[in-house]
Automatic annotation (TrEMBL):
It comes from the Eukaryota. The lineage of its organism: Eukaryota, Metazoa, Chordata, Craniata, Vertebrata. InterPro entries: FN3_dom, FN3_sf, Ig-like_fold, Striated_Muscle_Regulatory. Pfam families: fn3. CDD domains: FN3 (cd00063). This is Fibronectin type-III domain-containing protein. The keyword Cytoplasm does not apply.
Length: 197
C-alpha cells in the first residue's frame, strides 16, 4: 500500500486542527470504495515523553480536538486495509453417521489485502438475528474447513463467514442455509413402504 501523501494540518481554533491528506492509490476522484481506513497519529515534543495519540478515519480528513493552545504538534497518517471481500464458496454438509455434526467448507476471499490470520463462522437458526445473537466459532487462518457439533436435529441453520487479517475484519459472506437431518436412525425399509418415503 502506498502511504498517504500531502498531509496538511490547518488550525481551526486554539485547540482544534483539521488534518487532510491524499491517497495516490485511489482513483482520481479520491472516492474510497473498499474497506481501507486511515490512522492519524499526533504528538507534541513538550514535554518530551508525551504519548502518541491516534484516531481512525474512513475519509481523507480528520478533526483533532482538545489540543493544547500555542503548542507545536506533529501529525502523520497511515493507511490500513482489511479484507475487502468475503470468504467464498461456503458449503455445509452433514457428517456421515453423525447427523448432529456438520462440516462447513469455504474458500479464501479474493481480496484478502494481506495474509488471512483467521476466519469467524457465525451460525444461527434465525437469519434475521442481530450479529451479537449468532453463535461464533473462530478458526485459524490456514484452515478452510470446520466441524460444528451438537446441533439440533431437523432444524434450519444459517451460516456466515468473515475473514480477518492483521488489520481487522472483512465483510461477511451471504448466509447459507442448511437443515440438519430428521432422525439419528436410518429408517428401515419396512417403515416407508406405505405413503411417501
Amino acid at each position: 500500500m502506498m502511504p498517504p501523501v500531502g498531509v496538511q494540518a490547518s488550525v481551526l481554533s486554539h485547540d482544534t486542527i483539521k488534518v487532510t491528506w491524499a491517497d495516490n492509490s485511489l482513483p482520481k476522484n479520491q472516492k474510497i470504495t473498499d474497506n481501507r481506513h486511515y490512522t492519524v497519529r499526533w504528538k507534541t515534543n513538550i514535554p518530551a515523553n508525551t504519548k502518541v495519540k491516534m484516531a481512525n478515519s474512513t475519509s481523507l480528513s480528520h478533526i483533532v480536538q482538545g489540543l493544547k493552545p500555542n503548542t507545536l504538534y506533529e501529525f502523520s497518517v497511515m493507511v490500513t486495509k482489511v479484507p475487502s471481500s468475503a470468504p467464498k464458496d461456503v458449503t455445509v454438509v452433514s457428517k456421515e453417521n453423525k447427523p448432529r455434526t456438520i462440516i462447513v467448507n469455504w474458500q479464501p476471499p479474493s481480496e484478502a489485502n494481506g495474509k488471512i490470520t483467521g476466519y469467524i463462522i457465525y451460525y444461527s437458526t434465525d437469519v434475521n438475528a442481530v450479529v451479537h445473537d449468532w453463535v461464533i466459532e473462530p478458526v485459524v487462518g490456514n484452515r478452510l474447513t470446520h466441524q460444528i457439533q451438537e446441533l439440533t436435529l431437523d432444524t434450519a441453520y444459517y451460516f456466515k463467514i468473515q475473514a480477518r487479517n492483521s488489520k481487522g475484519m472483512g465483510p461477511m459472506s451471504e448466509a447459507v442455509q442448511f437443515r440438519t437431518p430428521k432422525s439419528k436412525f436410518k429408517k428401515s425399509a419396512g417403515e416407508h413402504s406405505h405413503g411417501k418415503s
